[in-house]
Amino acid sequence: MPPFSPFDLMRLSMNTATMLAQAQSVIAMRMMGMAGVWTVSPSENARMVSEKMRAGIKAGAAAQKSALSGGSATDIAEAALAPVKRATAANARRLTRSGPKTPF
User: Fold this and answer.
1) pLDDT, tens digit, for every residue of 68-85?
2) Could you give the C-alpha distances from 5 to 19, 63, 65, 80, in angstroms and in order?
3) Does the model's pTM come out above 0.85?
4) Is 79 within 8 Å of 68 (Cβ atoms)?
5) Burial, 36: exposed, middle or buried (Cβ in 10 Å; 0-12, 13-18, 19+)?
6) What does the alpha-carbon distance between residue 33 and residue 8 come to, in Å, rounded to a whole number?
């Protein structure tokens, strides 16, 4: 396995922190949608379950591919994080565009 640098760890940390912040905003918007305060599609509840399965499968496959090609520990973690980060960013963008419900 090739060695990794402190910069690799910093990049992984920043990407993880970004994904976690976006995930927290997605959770908040979905919870507000369940409370009737945020505009969400009727299929949002089913979507949040099925997308986790898809992202998990993609993350596992990407990590396995990186490991089998001789990637370092940070390469493997970055590969596993990438599909989850993409899905989280897409959800944050989509739900942010929906916006709060208007009182009228």
Assistant:
1) 999 999 999 999 999 999
2) 22, 19, 21, 19
3) yes
4) no
5) exposed
6) 37
